[in-house]
């Protein structure tokens, strides 16, 4: 165990050779970090989380040495030494003096906090071009990192599968605490299915020496911009199977953290630059998988802090919120479509198509074309102006509707050609229009889905009445128009079960989204129940 006097002793300025004015203590779930002026002393907690074990003095000594050795690959000027913490004959603790060794500390130069990439991004003080420099450093590091032999063996498919299974096992206590049960279910099912379906790709990555002795923990808090140098520090030293990994995983980790911190365009720039530097185009096939994995890992690791009695209740509450956000991002990464798709929201007015489209688009990474908005834009009418014509009259006459559907499909095709997925939010009451959309998706080699929204009429009537009074609402739908539309709707019977999904929007949006994702991803419900 950690020496009972260690924290108190190392919190005193006189404990250190340089006698700093003050000492600041930071804690993670595995480390005690003492900032003593311009020097940092990092002590490993005597903990065992299964994936790491620092419970003996010998293990802490070994892993301190590994931390020094491995981090000098990317930050040789930062990592200085490993020192002994001893108990002197008088019972007091000291550094590198005669006495009984009770622990070890990694000694580092203090990295200027104001130059951390996370802080610079949050303040808007760095341009997106910096990601090319970061990508070049990471790609060069990967190119020189060790590979083959034990690294290939440990970093292969079996370890990737084991890491995932361990994640799901270790997060069982966090279900409905930091991760909703429905998210856990989909994530587990999707990840295991991806591993099975892409076995050939994973084995090819090993054969092509894409498994390297990597950093293993490449997120924003471990990158510092020291002009002109970029310092990357604090790699994983405690478990080789987290460090011996596909370079695609390492690149995806940083891209994921940029997403998490609200900088997705920086993440895209980094991935594109990394691929350009490395020539590794296969990364695109693995990006969402590994982004999902690392968001899940971060959710798990941050979540451990909830049960750490050594930290304050405020920190535990913050950890709960942060862990939940990471798990939610993992869910979004798993939901992302691997290839462009054209998705129709079809159904009668008031059945919740627009609400579901917005919730679904945020998970799938799709663009939305809203027919009510497009119709009024084409007619140069403010989208919030209501036009209460009779059914099939005025701006809702058949000729106007046909032109609007044609324009929506044309815009959707343009987006799909750019590699984007598109959701067209419309009633799509005509079989002919649905088949035109399906044909367009086929020509563009895009996936095609029609999601039919249904809703009990008492709920629907209440929605229509409420919607008319909402500010910014483009729809002119009313109960009497619904009744007429209901008689004029072609049943969706021309599409296969794999293309046509019916969903009751009386359920909450997250339940509806989960139902659709399970169908689109073709996940087995017996696994996720």
Description of the structure:
The chain has helices spanning 6-10, 57-71, 117-122, 130-144, 150-154, 157-170, 181-197, 199-207, 240-243, 247-260, 264-278, 283-303, 313-335, 353-364, 371-378, 398-417, 431-443, 457-467, 479-487, 509-520, 525-528, and strands at 23-27, 31-36, 39-44, 79-87, 93-95, 100-109, 211-213, 223-226, 229-232, 244-246, 341-346, 367-370, 422-425, 447-454, 500-504. 48% of the residues lie in helices and 15% in strands. The protein is α/β, with parallel strands linked by helices and 529 residues long. α4 packs across α11 (264-278) and α14 packs across α20 (509-520). The radius of gyration is 28 Å and the shape is elongated.
Could you list some keywords that capture this structure?
five-stranded parallel beta sheet, 15 strands, six-stranded antiparallel beta sheet, alpha/beta, single chain, 529 residues
Task: Briefly say what this structure is.
The chain is of the alpha/beta class and 529 residues long. The chain is built from 21 helices and 15 strands.
């Amino acid at each position: 165990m950690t020496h009972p006097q260690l924290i108190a002793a190392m919190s005193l300025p006189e404990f250190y050779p340089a006698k700093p004015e003050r000492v600041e203590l930071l804690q993670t779930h595995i480390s005690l970090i003492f900032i003593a002026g311009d020097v940092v002393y990092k002590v490993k907690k005597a903990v065992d989380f299964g994936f790491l074990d620092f419970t003996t003095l010998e293990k802490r000594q070994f892993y301190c040495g590994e931390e020094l050795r491995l981090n000098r690959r990317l930050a040789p000027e930062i990592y200085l030494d490993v020192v002994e913490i001893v108990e002197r004959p008088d019972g007091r603790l000291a550094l590198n003096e005669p006495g009984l060794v009770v622990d070890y500390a990694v000694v580092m130069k203090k990295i200027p906090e104001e130059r951390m990439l996370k802080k610079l991004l949050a303040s808007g003080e760095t341009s997106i071009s910096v990601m090319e420099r970061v990508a070049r450093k990471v790609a060069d590091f990967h190119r020189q990192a060790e590979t083959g032999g034990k690294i290939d063996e440990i970093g292969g498919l079996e370890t990737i599968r084991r890491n995932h299974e361990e994640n799901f096992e270790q997060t069982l206590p966090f279900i409905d605490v930091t991760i909703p049960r429905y998210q856990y279910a989909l994530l587990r099912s999707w990840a295991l299915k991806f591993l099975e379906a892409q076995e050939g790709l994973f084995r090819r990555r090993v054969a092509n020496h894409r498994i390297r002795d990597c950093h293993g923990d490449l997120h924003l808090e471990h990158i510092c911009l020291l002009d002109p140098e970029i310092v990357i520090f604090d790699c994983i030293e405690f478990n080789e199977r987290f460090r011996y990994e596909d370079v695609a995983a390492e690149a995806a980790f940083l891209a994921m953290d940029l997403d998490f911190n609200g900088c997705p365009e920086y993440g895209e720039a980094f991935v594109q630059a990394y691929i350009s530097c490395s020539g590794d185009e296969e990364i695109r096939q693995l990006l969402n998988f590994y982004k999902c994995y690392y968001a899940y890992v971060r959710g798990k690791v941050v979540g451990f802090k909830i049960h750490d009695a050594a930290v304050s209740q405020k920190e535990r509450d913050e950890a709960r919120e942060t862990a939940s956000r990471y798990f939610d991002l993992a869910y979004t990464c798993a939901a992302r479509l691997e290839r462009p798709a054209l998705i129709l929201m079809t159904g009668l007015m008031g059945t919740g198509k627009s609400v579901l489209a917005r919730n679904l688009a945020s998970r799938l990474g799709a663009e939305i074309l809203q027919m009510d908005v497009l119709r009024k834009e084409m007619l140069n009418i403010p989208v919030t102006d209501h036009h209460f014509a009779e059914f099939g009259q005025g701006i809702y006459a058949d000729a106007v509707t046909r032109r609007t559907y044609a324009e929506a499909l044309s815009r959707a095709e343009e987006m799909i050609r750019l590699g984007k997925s598109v959701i067209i939010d419309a009633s799509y009451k005509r079989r002919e229009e649905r088949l035109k959309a399906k044909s367009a998706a086929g020509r563009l080699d895009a996936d095609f889905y029609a999601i039919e929204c249904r809703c009990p009429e008492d709920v629907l009537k209440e929605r229509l009445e409420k919607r008319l009074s909402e500010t910014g609402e483009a729809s002119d739908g009313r109960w009497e128009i619904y009744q007429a539309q209901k008689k004029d709707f072609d049943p969706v019977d021309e599409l296969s079960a794999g293309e046509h999904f019916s969903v009751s929007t009386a359920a909450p949006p997250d339940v509806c989204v989960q139902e659709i994702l399970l169908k689109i991803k073709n996940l087995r419900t017996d696994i996720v129940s």
